[in-house]
Write a structure and sequence with these properties.
The N terminus is likely disordered. β2 and β3 form a beta hairpin. The chain is mainly beta and about 140 residues long.
Amino acid sequence: MKFVVVAALAACLLSSPALAKKDVPVLSGAYVYTNIESCISPGGQVSVARTTGVATLDPQTGTASLSGYHSDGQSLVAVSQNATYSNTKTEVTINGTTYKAFYGALDKKIATYLSFIGVEPGDDGAICSDSAWLSRK
């Protein structure tokens, strides 16, 4: 019963006109990021990989550049890559994959914190869960 009341209250608050008019958070500048990817293969093997570094996001072009380190549990490798991105109030899309997103405080409409999670296909038929956290530098 408590869950139903809380869910109803949350639905009312989230559908209020004041909240609906909030601006979409802007992702801009340099963020320290951590990403964890957990995959399970069709045969049941589980793998976990982690990446951390700096992501620089440009909302004018919708591009991000990432540099940091990646570990699959066996080695540590320097990584550098570019990506495209866009975002709404509840989602972020990176290179065509959409994730559910949550934002922290805004500073002049720029998100100071972002976390997101999603499921995507991995290599060789694996299914992967990706989650990441970004904190503005």
